[in-house]
Amino acid sequence: MFLACPCRGFAVRAAFRSLLTCMLASLLACSDAGSGSSPHDAGTDALACDPESSNTWPLTWRAPRAPTPGACTDLQITDYANRCLDSSPDSDVEACYAIQRDPANSICLKCLFSTVQDERYGPIVIGWDRRWYVNVGGCMALIDGDRTENGCGAKDTALQACRSAACTNCTTSAALSACWRQAGSTVCKSYFDDAVCETSPEYSSCTDYSTFDEYLTWVGALFCSTGFGVAPEPT
Amino acid sequence: MITCLFDRRHWTRIRSWQLVRVGGVALACLFASTASCGEEAGPAASTDASTDAASCGPQVAPWDSTWTPPRPFGPGACTSDQIAGEAKCNPSFASFDPTACTTFERSPANATCRQCLLSTSGDPTLGAIVVHPDGRWFINAAGCIALIDGDSSREGCGARYEANLACRQAACDNCFSVSAYNDCWREAGNSACKSVADKAICAQSPVFGPCLDYDTYEELYDALTALFCSTGFTVPADAGFASDAWVEATTSE
C-alpha cells in the first residue's frame, strides 16, 4: 500500500473559483517526536480524537511504477505545485485548470498521478477518500531496490496506512498530529516497530521534507523528472 | 419540465452536462462535482424551491448501465466558426440565435461538422454531443475521458465515470431543489452508489483536465467539441524533455 502519513497527505477541494488544499496533517508529523502546524489547525479538538483500531484502509502493498525520467521538467512540477496546491501563495485555480487542460502537460500528469485502484503507483496517489497522498513508501522502495511487501517502503506504507485509518475521524491538523503520534505507540505500534528502517539516511531524498509542496516537488521529480540517479532494477 | 440550475458555490470540476430541450426551450443543466476531501459535491438540478431538502435522498433506483464508447477524436471535421455556429442553437448560450441556428443547420456545408458533433443515444459510438430520446443533450465528458485514457472499454475510466453519474442521477431523481439534489448527490456516493463511485475515483486524476476542468458550459462545449471534431488531442512532441516518456509512462503500468 502506498499511503504517506497524513502530514504528507492533502486533499484538493475545489470550490467556486477556489482550489482548496485540504491539508490534514501537520508538517513534522511523520517523525513521532514532532508536531507542527497546518492550514486547518483550528486547535479545537486536539484532544478529541484518539487513535482507533480500524480496517478502513487496505494494507495491500502496491509496488511503485518504474521512474520515468523526463516525463516532466522540473519547471512543470514546480509550476503545478505552485498553481494547484492551495497551500502555495501562488495558488490560482484558473491557472491550475489551464495547466491540467494543456495537452503539453499530459505526459507529466500521467506520470505524477495514480489512483488507489491502479496496480502500481506513481509519486502521487489519489486515495479512496479522494485525498492526495505522496507515495513515500514507493520512493523508498525505488531507493533500496526492494519493491516487495517485505521491503522498507512497504513497511513504511503499512505504518502510514494504519495511522491514517486510526485517525480518520480527526478533523483538525492539530488533532490529527496528536493522534498520529499516539497511534505509533498504541494501535499501530507493531507497524511502527516494523518500520524502524525508515529512519535510515538512505531514504532522506524521500522523507526529509516538511510540506506537501516539497514532497510533491521532490518526490515527483524523482519519479518523473530527474530520476533516482542509477535506476534501480525491478525486484 | 426540469429547470436546470447551477449553484456555483458548489462548483469546481465539471463532471457532466446536459442540455434539456422541452417544449422548444433548451436549458443548460450542469452536473458538477468536486474532489472535496472525501465527498463529491453534487450537481445542480431542478427548480430551486428549497423545500424538499428533507424529503428526498439517495434511493436505490435502477439506472442505465449501458456504456457506449466514444468516436475517436476527429480533427478537422469542423472549423471554429462551425462550432460557434452550432452554439447558436443552444438557448443557454449568450450567442443563442434561432434564426442563425436554422440557417446553420440547413446548410449542406455544415453537414460533415454536425455529423461529427452530434450523436444519438442509440448510436454504436458517441461524439461530443449526445442527444437523448427525450431531447436532452449531453456533453460527452465520459467519452473524452475514455479517449484521453486510451481505454474505451466497459472497464475503462470513462465508463466508470459514466456509471457513477448515471447511478447518482437515478438515486436523486426524486429531489427537486438544488440544495437537496446536491446533498443527495454527495450522500449517494457513500450509500446507494458507493460501489460505482469508488470505481470512478480514476476520474479524479488531473490527467483528465482536458475533459473536465472548465468554468462554464460554454467553455466545456467549446473545448470538447474542438477535441472531438476540430483540433483533436495532440501531445506536443516536446512535452516533457524525453521524447519517449509517454511510451514509458504508458507501458510501465
Question: Can you give keywords for this protein?
Answer:
heterodimer; A: 235 residues; alpha+beta; 5 strands; globular; disordered C terminus; B: 253 residues; 10 helices; disordered N terminus
State the distance separating the first and last CA atoms of chain B.
47 Å
Percent of residues of chain A in beta strands?
A: 5-15%
Count every helix of chain A, treating DSSP H or I runs of 4 or more residues as helices: 9
Task: Return the string of H and E elements of chain B.
Answer: EEHHHEEEHHHHHHH
Share of helical residues of chain B: 25-40%
What is the 3D form of chain A? globular
Oligomer: heterodimer
Question: What is the overall pLDDT average of chain B?
Answer: 76
Q: What kind of sheet is the major sheet of chain A?
A: 5 strands, mixed
Low-confidence stretches of chain A: 1-46, 231-235
Structural shape of chain B:
globular
Task: Report the order of strands and helices of chain A.
Answer: EEHHHEEEHHHHHH
Query: What proportion of the residues of chain A is helical, as a percent range?
Result: 25-40%
Give the distance, in angstroms, between the N- and C-terminal Cα atoms of chain A: 17 Å
- Give the structural class of chain B: alpha+beta
Determine Rg of chain A (CA atoms, Å). Answer: 17 Å
Low-confidence stretches of chain B: 1-53, 241-253
**Mean pLDDT, all residues of chain A:** 78
How many strand units of chain A? Answer: 5
Rg of Cα set of chain B: 18 Å
